[in-house]
Structure formats: C-alpha cells, structure tokens
Amino acid sequence: MLSKVSHVTRGRFGAALGAACVTFFASSVFAAKTGGIALGERFRFFPSLQLEFRYDNNAFASSTAVGAPILRLLPKLEIGTPEPNMIGLNANIGVDWRKYFGQEGTSVGDLSTLALTSDLEFQVNPNGAFAFTFVNGFRRTTDPASGQSSAPINRIYDQVGPKFLIQPGGRALSVEFAYLFAINRIEPGSQSVDPLSDYNQHSFRLQGKWKFFQKTAVVLDFDMAVLEYVNGSPLIGGTPLKVGAGFLGQVTPKIAAVLKAGYGNSLSTSGPNFSSVIATAEATFKPVQTVSLTLGYQRDFVPANGWGNFYDTHHPYLKFSWLFFQRLNLAVDGDYQHLTFSNNPTGITGIQNITTQRLDDLFQVAVSFAVDVKEWFKVVAGTQIEIRRSNVSATTTTVPPTTATLDYTKVLGYVNVVFGF
Fold first, then answer.
1. Distance (Å, whole) CA 177 – CA 272
2. What per-residue confidence (pLDDT) applies to 190?
3. Taking a C-beta distance cutoff of 8 angstroms, is the pair 388, 407 a contact?
C-alpha cells in the first residue's frame, strides 16, 4: 500500500529531497499466490531468499563516477489467507542487506546498509457487498548521496489506515473510500539538508468503478492529501488535489487500454501552484499469451519538494515481456521523464541562490533475462542504464564554495538467484 518512491529524490542536490508521495493508494502489495507451505486449514506460509551480485559503475549517482561491486541478501517471509471468507489476513517482512566493496580512498564502503519492509492487510468480509480493510506499510529505505563525502540518506516511512469498499449485487458497481496517515522521517546521520524534509501526511481517496462489460470499466477518482512539514522545516506544505475519470479494460481480445484524464492542483500554502491537466494513456498489445508490449504516457506533478513547490512531469514509457519455452522470460523496460521545477530552493540552507528555472531530463532502460529452473528456484540476469541531464548546477555556501553538477550516467549489471516456495 505504499506509494512508489520517486527516483528524483536521490542525493544532496537531488530533485526532490524527500518529495511527498502522491500516488496515495497503490494496489495491494499482496498478489494472488499458489504453492507455499500450509499452516493449518486457512493460512499459507511463503518464505523466499534472494542472493544478488551486482556492479554499479556510479554508486553515488554523481558526475564523477565511482564504481563498486555490491552483494545483496534479501530474505522475506509472507503469511496469508489465499482464499479468505469472512476474515482475511496477509502480512510480510523483508530485509535488503547491501554490502558495498569500496575503492581505496573513497567512501563507497560507507554505503553498506540494511533496508526493511513490512506490510499488513487485515480484511473483513472481503468478498461481500460491504468490505473493510485495515492496512499498514513500513519502509526503511536508504539511498546513496550524490557526493562522495556525504552520508547516505536513510528514511523511515510508515503509512496506516482503513479502506471501505461497497460492491452491491453482481459487483458491476463499486465505491471505495480510504484514509491513510503517513510519516516520513530522516534518520540522524543522513545528509544535513534532508532532515528538513520530515513530514506528516493525511491522504483521502474516493474511487468509483462501473464495469459495463466483464473486463471493461469506467472509473472516477478523487485524491487529496494534507501535507505538513515538521521539525522547523522551511519547505512549503500544501493540500495537493487530483480529480480524474477514464476508461480501463479490454478493447479487443488482444488489446487492453487505460485512458484517464483530470485536473491536478498542488494547492501550496504559499508561492506558485501547479494547476493543470493530468492524464494517463496506456495500451497493451498481447498477440499471444506469452508476448506483451505496453506503450504509455503520463502527465502528472509531484508536490512540495526541496527544489520548489512542485515539479511537473511528462513521462512516456514502454514495457516488453516475452515468455518462451515456458521457463525463459525476456523483459525490457524503458522510460523518459522531462521534469520542470516550479521555483528555486530558497528554503534550503547550504546552497547559494539559483536564478535559473531547473529543467531535468531522465532516461532509464532496463533489460533482464529470467530462467525458471524449478518452481522454487529462479535465476535472473540483467542490466540497467540511468542518465540524468539538468540545466543547473548547485553551489554550496561553504568557504571555499564547491559546485556540483546534477548530471550523471549510471550503468549497472546484476545476477540474482531466487529461492522461494
């Protein structure tokens, strides 16, 4: 139930400095599963372990690349009721341990860390006309800093709240209301400017859906949040609002589409506001069951961040997946984001005034190849490329001042071994 963390939050001179989440209510983190280990008649237990070796040629995501081999160990435990009746319970806990093997004379080794995830979903009458769900999602995340002498950015994030679902009759019509309260805190020892991005957030959502065919629906969304920065932060809060409507589902047996459009407003407490159209257009083509191609475009905004009251995004993307010989899967993902920032970082200490409006271009490509050796054993190999280009540089107010460009290129390769039941 956690929102996706934006890539632009990375680093001392990163784009968002802990930008508040705005995709408030993602789908359940608990996907339908088969297999596992039976615990009585109702519960199943799903343990898994991933071991990954990777090499990152630019561990700090900075203009001066410093490479590092990385070892990751990711154990995870999940328990759930795959077919709940009146009561359903799903819970998980996962660890991401990363060991950076640093070069002599650099602080790469200081990036070694431990990230944590935990999710809880308690359901009452999930298949009935009136359903209640209580959710909690906890994250301890860590991001390398965009400076070789900077400590990594460690965040504690927790989101909790209820969801109410009304789906009468044959469930052609459904209405869901949700409220979530979230806190974001930067741990002591992280970069000096990032504790300014501590915040509390109250999020509200109302979504209506009408299925006029079995696999086709019209949706209406209303999302609003109350964002409050705390601990004396000079960052600007607000009440970001998003309202939209659209269509999703099958167009033909081989083509599915999502078309949504609406209005967004950052409603900042002071300074400039985003006030414009937001939209998503996506088409998925499946010529056969084993091949899928998705093309999409998203126009959106992220409110209240360290570099300004908001930034807006234009985001085309593609996804390709091909399963062959029943065990081999090739996946290719690519996207481009153009980010326009509203104003300059006047509230951030340690950075000199910048008069140029910031414009960023972010390119990302990921290619992976997975082999299902056994039902409980998988091997994945892949590579990722990330390129950022910005029209501004950041200069500190230290004596003597130092200037850091926001441009970087990152290339990494990895091999991941997965054991799971």
1. 30
2. 59
3. yes
Only one residue has tokens 């927790």, namely 158
Tokens at 134, concatenated: 């209580």
Task: List b or e across 407-421, with b for residues whose CB sees 16 or more CB atoms inside 10 angstroms.
Answer: ebebbbebebebebe
- CA-to-CA distance for 112 and 199, rounded, in angstroms? 26
The DSSP bridge pattern shows strands 241-252 and 130-143 to be unpaired
* Whether 332 contacts 367, CB under 8 Å: yes
Selected residue with higher pLDDT from 30 and 410: 410
Residues 26-43: b if buried by 16+ CB within 10 A, e if exposed: eeebbeeeeebeeeeeee
Provide the 3-class DSSP secondary structure of residue 200: strand
Domains plus CATH for the chain? 7-420 (2.40.160)
Tens digit of pLDDT for each residue in 96-138? Answer: 999 988 765 567 777 888 999 999 999 999 888 999 999 999 9
pLDDT at res. 369: 97
Q: What is the distance between the alpha carbons of residues 46 and 420, in angstroms, rounded to a whole number? A: 7
pTM of the model: 0.85
Q: Which residues contact 31 (CB under 8 A, 6 or more apart)?
A: none
Instruction: For residue 229, give the amino acid letter.
Output: Y
Residue 235 tokens read as: 């960052």
Per-residue model confidence (pLDDT) at position 248: 94
Query: In this predicted model, what pLDDT tens digit does every residue of 192-240 receive, in sequence order?
Result: 455 567 889 999 999 999 998 888 999 999 999 999 888 777 777 889 9
Helices (H), 43-146: none
What single-letter DSSP state applies at residue 385? E
Q: Which residue has the tokens 């850091």?
A: 404
